[in-house]
Write a structure and sequence with these properties.
- β1 (19-23) and β2 form a beta hairpin.
- The chain is of the alpha+beta class.
- Helices cover 29% and strands 14% of the residues.
- The chain has helices at residues 40-48, 55-66; strands at residues 19-23, 31-35.
- The chain has a two-stranded antiparallel ribbon.
- The longest helix is centred in the last third of the chain and has 12 residues, at 55-66.
Length: 73
């Protein structure tokens, strides 16, 4: 995405109780951790293509997506 090499997000449902990360777009937190329960939220995130198994991958994804709207320095 843009200048970032974003790791492939998860494409299949996870096993129950598996931890996962999604990009978060705030100034100080770029990834949030969740536990897979196969609920509506989990499935929406899966369909959106934003689930990663590591915080580092989710942070890269967040940086890539915000690079399109970030104000010029």
């Amino acid at each position: 995405i843009g200048e970032y090499d974003v790791p492939e997000p998860v494409r299949e449902p996870l096993e129950k109780d598996t931890a996962y990360w999604i990009p978060h777009f705030s100034l100080d937190v770029l990834a949030n951790r969740f536990i897979w329960y196969s609920d509506d939220f989990d499935n929406r995130m899966l369909k959106s293509g934003v689930i990663h198994l590591t915080k580092e991958d989710a942070v890269i994804h967040a940086k890539a997506l915000t690079s399109f709207t970030k104000a010029a320095e």
